[in-house]
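Rather than argue in generalities, we reproduce a single protein record, letters for residues, whole numbers for local backbone shapes, just as it appears below:
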Amino acid sequence: MALAPQLVDADGARTEVLVIDNGSEQLPLDVLSGYPFARLLEERLSGPGPARNRGVREATGDVLAFIDADCVADAGWLNAIRAHAAAHMDILGGDVRILHVDPDHPTVWEAYESEFAYRMEHYIRSKGFTGTGNLVIRRPVMDDVGEFAGIGVAEDRDWGRRAGEKGYGITWAPDMVAYHPARESFAELARKWDRQIAHDLEDRLSSGDSWRLRWIVRAVALPVSPLAMIPRILKSDRINGGLLGRIKAFGGLVAIRSYRGLVMLRLVVRPGVGTAGDHWRAQ
């Protein structure tokens, strides 16, 4: 566990670690047996939101730090949190980088996601939310904003929106780094975008605005939009593997954006929001 060497701060205080199991067929008792400092809890209500809510209810500290089970915390993750907490930051959103199997030879999806996934700084500055897999919240703020939403909602976007409505801002913390494995196949990324597109369409349908024309224009533009991303890919400091890695990133981007455009157009003709949402809930 990457957190183990970081748990004790300069004053000798130990950070509390809660592991929330959310539906495993078998509890990870063997995995955690070597880490007696970690307390294992179960949350039977499915979804990342309910699991995080259980952790919040059980935690005793004033600073709540969230990281996903499939992520690896950087060696300085907790120290970065402590430094920001000492500066009395209310909400922190950290950087999420891709965890490579072989950094010198990234797969197509590792190269693509290194640049185009987990764009937390962009989400914070432009959309007012950040991913809950690398998030820090002071307890009084959590109590004021309320719990994370259930599985039928993008809980990170929903919680950030509610926090913003109450006047709280999210501080971008690039030194608070977590590493997330890339998705292993196009099918996994397609499922991710099915969920995202469903949430986007639900937002537009509930807003009552005239959204259809803008939606179609965006869908048609998506397959050709990777051409505008070539300079960004060439300059990126997040893509490993030299020129071949950048070619892989571009190829992945073309595949994903073409798929997104097709799904968006299909939903205009036959708005199957429920289909995408139900597919997600079944995972």
